[in-house]
Amino acid sequence: MTVKRKSIFIVSGLLAAGLTGCDNNDHQVSPGNQAALESRNIPTLTVDGLKFKDLNKNGQLDPYEDWRLDSATRARDLTARMSVEEKAGAMMHGTIGLNGAGRVDISAAEEDVNQRFVNTFITRMAGDPQHISADNNALQEMAEKSRLGIPVTISTDPRNHFVNDPNATSVAAGSFSQWPEPLGLAAIDDTALSKTFGDIARQEYRAVGIHMALSPQADLATEPRWGRINGTFGEDNQLSKRQVQAYIEGFQHGDKGLTQDSVITVVKHFAGGGPQLGGLDPHNVFGKEQVYPGDNLEYHLVPFEGAFAANVASVMPYYGQPINLWYKDQLIEEVGFGFNKQVLTEMLRGRFGFSGVVLSDWGILESCEGKCATGISDADIAAGVSPWTAGIGMSWGVENLTRQERVVKAVEAGVDQFGGTSDPSDLIEAINQQQLPIATIDASVTRILQQKFELGLFEKPYVDEAKAVKIVGNAEFQQKGDDAQRRAQILLQDNNSLLPLALSGKKVFLHNVNATVAARYGLEVVANPEEAEIAILRVDTPHQNDPHYPFGVSVNFGQLGFEDADTVVLDQKAGTYSGSEDYQLIKQVKALNLPTVISVYLDRPAILTNIVDKTDVLLANFGASDEAVLDVITGKSKAQGKLPFELPSSWQAVLDQKEDVAHDSVDPLFPIGAGIL
């Protein structure tokens, strides 16, 4: 055996996918084949003419360093070599800090990796894919210096969905390909397209060194006021089930589990977010209750069946605290799902046989006290104080426990890894005080490490930075995204068959549409509707917000309809209303009898009763560029979507709905599946 220290890149004749895999599908690599290896700091070993990385730098080939062995064997061996502190660090899922330039703060990350032994992080770095890939490579190089050479797993929230900006004339160069939100994929309901989306996002993620998608949402939009509906596939559980499965198969590159080409998917939020009391979100202290007045838990479990059919790698439970929920003649403990053994062990592990990683949602260990609970004051708001200064914490149902007691309860419930924290101190104390069996800790750590082995990160942690620039948001990928943005739009009304419109040479009044983009279609943009021959208005679903809380600002709630500010009936939860300004403009344009097109962004099921009679054409979108909207208006493309949820006819109908029941709005203005094709 020889030891060699230098940077290496060895290419084998064996496809990488054959090197590691799930327990049932692992293949031993025959001695005649060499795995591809990458290293910047780790020495190499030569054994029987083959090269291996000496990850722990001890001069001998240990089982976890042997790429010929299956991933489960390697993970168990590595776990056995880890200290309590290293195991606890592996069970944390930290956040990559960014500096003032938006680049990774390497010094802060080094403290997390080499002192706290954390090796899984979420990145929120955006911008140039060359910078993202370079910084992720720097993190991997730093991780090589750790005692055992464990590579870093990098996760992200979704970053491929279009957000309308009327000031933007095009998608920024270097951006990830932009697609409609999951609701748009549901509106098309083409599982092949959803799988293609996942596959393209997978290639973009892996190109920049991202390995884990904190998605999809298998939650159901049964409560129309809930502010996270835009990340779901709608309210129908069967439609959601097939879309969730296709999404995961695209990201994980098949339905056989993880391979070296996969992106780990984290389906959320078990056992189904959505039936939130009054539609209020449990990111907030005022929205922590999850209720089932229709006794409809089973309906909400169905979409997860699609995830399990696709062999989803990880599952995230929600913050919600189930109230008066019964399962198999037992009352479910009224604690957040991340602390709930009945849900995570008996239901998820037992009934559904899930054997992957359970990752908690962010901040479940932290207390919500002081301004976190009360919100910042009106004086704070007037002084420009950010609500984020109040802090966050979502330990619902276990507020009376210490942080260490919460750690113990969550691990006993079935959590393997804690999202949003790099602080393993309480877990270390719990292990050392024998409050948790070491066998339980070892099982969690092994599951986490096995995913790293299955992705091939121990052999090839680095990415090609030049190649990343060519892959991310390339023309072919964006063309497919643009096509999906067009197809996902829904034509709800077309009075007198006004579409398609011949726009060239017409004087147009625009609202939330970029004038430069409109000019490309031959339109002459005018400043006032009185000067126009046609009006094209883009509006958002009305909503309420509470600026006293961080998630009161970022997660919408309450009223869904277009109303006058002085007569609107707001939700019982106080908050500022958005919708009246757009409504005034719509009425102003209507009074001029202009041919009018309104496109509504549906992040929640809007009440359109007050505007349906004030427009000739009514379109819905789930994230679409101005080009995509204008292409549908002019007939260059066809809206092919159908509503993935029903649109209520009144605020009273919303109030009368049961939070956990689908399709129960009385006399909906537009039923689920509506759309003129």
UniProtKB/TrEMBL annotation:
One of its GO terms (molecular function) is hydrolase activity. Residues 526-676 form the Glycoside hydrolase family 3 C-terminal domain. InterPro entries: Cellulose_Degrad_GH3, GH, Glyco_hydro_3_C, Glyco_hydro_3_C_sf, Glyco_hydro_3_N, Glyco_hydro_3_N_sf. The keyword Hydrolase applies. Its EC number is 3.2.1.21. It holds the Pfam family Glyco_hydro_3. Transmembrane segments: none annotated. It catalyses: Hydrolysis of terminal, non-reducing beta-D-glucosyl residues with release of beta-D-glucose. The keyword S-adenosyl-L-methionine does not apply. Residues 111-450 form the Glycoside hydrolase family 3 N-terminal domain. This is beta-glucosidase. It comes from Serratia silvae. The lineage of its organism: Bacteria, Pseudomonadati, Pseudomonadota, Gammaproteobacteria, Enterobacterales.
